[in-house]
Amino acid sequence: MKKNLLGLFSTLIVVSILLTACGSAMATPVSIATVVAAPPTGAPVFTGLGCAPSCQYSDLVVGFLQTGSEGGWRAANTASFKETAKQLGLKLKFYDSQNDFAKQIAGFQRFIQDPEVNVIVLAALETTGWEEVLQQAKDNGKIVIIEDRRIDAPEDLYATYIGSDFAEEGRKSAMELCKLLEGMSGKNVWELVGNIGSSAAKDRGQGFREKMADCGIEITKSQTANWSATESKQVTQAWLTETKDVQAIFAQNDEMSFGAIEALKEAGLVPGVDVKILSVDATGSAFQAMLEGSLNVTVECNPLLAPQVYEAALKAANGEDLPSWVPSEEGVFYADDPELQEIIKGRTY
Ligand code: GYE
After folding, report:
1. Which has the higher per-residue pLDDT, 193 or 348?
2. Residue 227 in contact with ligand 1 by CB distance below 6 A
3. Which of 199, 208, 281 for a ligand 1 pocket mutation test, highest count of atoms within 8 Å of Cβ?
4. pLDDT digit string (tens) for 96-144?
5. Mean pLDDT of the chain
6. Beta strands, E only, 31-105
7. Is beta strand 91-96 parallel, antiparallel or unpaired with respect to 61-66?
8. What tens digit of pLDDT does each residue of 303-345 get?
């Protein structure tokens, strides 16, 4: 018996040694990365609010840190949050960061100190600089959700990110410009960039560069115009004084394509014909520009994110686990699409 026990015991030791060896062997190479990326045990980042597991939208007080006003996309995004909050009966505290990063951090800290606020939603002006306030928010039991623009911070400091795959928008943009420039000798492209430091600008540019070589596109000029039609007109005018050897413009948002279109017209060029124009966002104004023929293609970026954000906030409030990223569904639209008029009727922004 004892021998058997001894035999059994030694077998157990061997097995456990083996197990630990396997466990650590398996864990070490793979687990570190994923552990940082997603909670290993499926445990929610936030343990829920006092009303969990039966919190309602009326229990949520959301502090929303918007970037500031930039154009049609931003206006639609802000409206989505304000209107959906009314529909769901949740209290929304809206903070306009006026496109100023320091003001956005200050606004974040204000919501951390606000005893009424239990959810903080962030549309980040910059990708970095958030870890400290995120940790403070977590220590104060505030649920944090990142919307629109991703950030570079450990994912266990926020409940989830809801927004577009900007790199994919950049890849799509390059592939569409390749089609537009087919058969053209030159493939010189000018890039109008969003605000430096934002994930939208970084990732769209990176995605575009991943695909542009497929058809020999060259970016011969690239500069920020801060999502603005006024600035992009000035930038394009300056470039046109240097050269007119451009076959296409990649505008990282609709507004910047409108400024470029104006500059080309004033320089005696026909936008959409002499110079192909592609933008990202697909707001109502972009469809108008396509109807006029001055914009050739627009790659969609969905601004109506509030319903998904509030749904995720309620799940987090009830202690439910959330995926680390909820990407948006998006399309591409063409000026030469015979259905364009019909498509426009169905658009809400
Ligand atoms: O493309 C642009 C806005 O973050 C996706 O910001 C958003 C971008 C959008 O100013 O129009």
Report:
1. 193
2. yes
3. 281
4. 999 999 999 999 999 999 999 999 999 999 999 999 999 999 999 999 9
5. 90
6. 61-66, 91-96
7. parallel
8. 999 999 999 999 999 999 999 998 888 999 999 999 999 999 9
Q: Ligand 1: does its nearest atom lie under 6 Å from the Cβ of 149? A: yes
Q: Is 187 in the pocket of ligand 1 (CB under 6 A)?
A: no
Q: Cis ω on the peptide bond leading into residue 53 (within 30° of 0)?
A: yes
> Ligand 1: does its nearest atom lie under 6 Å from the Cβ of 280?
yes
Q: Is 281 in the pocket of ligand 1 (CB under 6 A)?
A: yes
73 lines ligand 1 (CB under 6 A): yes
Q: How far apart are CA 279 and CA 251, in angstroms?
A: 5
Q: What share of the chain is helix, strand, coil (3-state, %, to 5)?
A: 50, 15, 35
pTM above 0.70, yes or no: yes
The token duo for 277 is 């124009």
Q: Which atom of ligand 1 is nearest to the CA of 303?
A: 5
